[in-house]
Write a structure and sequence with these properties.
Bound molecules: flavin-adenine dinucleotide
CATH class of the largest domain: Alpha Beta
Radius of gyration: 20 Å
CATH topology of the largest domain: Rossmann fold
Order of helices and strands: EHEHHEEEHEEHEEEEEHEEEH
Number of helices: 7
Structural class: alpha/beta
Shape: globular
Distance between the termini: 19 Å
Helix content: 25-40%
Number of domains: 2
Length: about 325
């Protein structure tokens, strides 16, 4: 592979949270960036996201820990700027299994075991903490605007083959979520995990988040944002049905109301379905066998927002590495 010039002309495929965060980081490191996507940011799976900083159906490893920590630090900084749509919210993760995964808590300064008197029926324990909650429509619009201020250009079209981008780019970053692998053809390990959610008006003035993945009736989470509340959910692997299921919705709402009775009076604003781009490990690497520099950045499962800034920073490191080597 020939040595890359610096700054680079980089094309990012995808304008979900991974593509936009990556475009932002690349442009703020001096690269000239173009984003190509066939869905606008507010049409992506990212826009449906709840979105709480919390790893869920995503890689659990030391490498992913670095991405989690970096993303948490950036969201904390962004929570100081009201226009971003990022807020820090206290809440708790209910645990119904002795081997509950508390790995998220080591990143969260005020995390602690919840007093047993506050647990719902059937829960063994719970862990509480203050984490970022992101109102995605506000956040994605803000992020796209920031990208444009850094000179990022946006094009709306479908990319049929990565090779078609060779003429205008030194490097391509593939941040196409569920559809990334089809552009590479060498990866059959991405699969959908269907998520259905309800958006309620926050007339109850709820502030604290709650998650209960092992609720006997099915996954349950309640994420209060600025003016609304996202109630979930489902985690059906390999289910590609994008239609809202009314029965599922009423069961989800009933579970949520059993944990937070004040939700009963909140107006239902809309129902949404999205497919989480799941993979055992996030694909975040230079792709070999391509006749140009291609960085893969996909497979974030139910944690794309939670891992977004760490992923973006890693892409910059992967691209800048050869240029840095020449300075040594
Ligand atoms: C119900 C639900 C709740 C969730 N809650 C959370 C949460 O609380 N916290 C969290 O961290 N995560 C959550 N997630 C997961 C999160 O939404 C995803 O991990 C994340 O959105 C993935 O982002 P992405 O940028 O990789 O993909 P996407 O948002 O799907 O964006 C993909 C982009 O690639 C473009 N694209 C793809 N292929 C092509 C092509 N060939 N040509 C042109 N453009 C192309 C699309 O147009 C789009 O712009 C949730 C997901 C769901 C469904």
């Amino acid at each position: 592979m020939p040595e890359l010039p610096s700054p680079l002309n980089v094309t990012v495929i995808g304008s979900g949270v991974i593509g936009l965060s990556t475009a932002h980081e690349l442009a703020s490191h001096g690269h000239k960036v173009r984003v190509i996507s066939d869905q606008e940011p507010l049409q992506t799976v990212s826009a449906i996201s709840a979105a709480i900083w919390f790893p869920y159906h995503s890689e659990n490893s030391p490498a992913a820990d670095v991405l989690l920590a970096r993303t948490l630090a950036r969201f904390k900084a962004l929570s100081l700027i009201p226009e971003t749509g990022v807020d820090l919210r206290f809440g708790m993760d209910i645990e119904r299994r002795a081997d509950a995964d508390r790995s998220w808590a080591k990143h969260v300064a005020d995390s602690e075991v919840v007093d047993a008197a506050l647990l719902p029926e059937g829960a063994l324990s719970a862990t509480s903490g203050t984490v970022p909650v992101i109102t995605m429509p506000t956040y994605l619009s803000w992020l796209q605007d920031q990208c444009q201020r850094h000179g990022v250009e946006f094009e709306q079209r479908t990319v049929n083959a990565i090779g078609d981008l060779r003429a205008g780019a030194d490097a391509v970053v593939l941040a196409g979520g569920m559809r990334s692998a089809e552009l590479l053809g060498d990866d059959h390990s991405v699969y959908p995990i269907r998520g259905q959610v309800i958006r309620l008006a926050n007339s109850a003035g709820l502030r604290n988040w709650l998650s209960d993945d092992d609720h006997p009736g099915g996954v349950c989470y309640i994420i209060p944002r600025r003016d609304d509340i996202i109630v979930g959910g489902t985690d059906a692997a390999h289910d590609t049905n994008l239609e809202v299921d009314a029965q599922t919705a009423s069961e989800m709402l009933a579970r949520a109301i059993s944990l937070a009775p004040q939700l009963a009076g909140c107006e239902v604003l809309e129902h949404k379905v999205g497919l989480r781009p799941a993979r055992e490990t996030i694909r975040l690497e230079r792709v070999s066998g391509q006749d140009m520099t291609v960085i893969a950045a996909y497979g974030h499962g139910g944690g794309g927002v939670t891992l977004s800034w760490g992923t973006a920073q890693r892409v910059v490191e992967l691209l800048d590495a050869p240029a840095q080597a020449t300075h040594q």
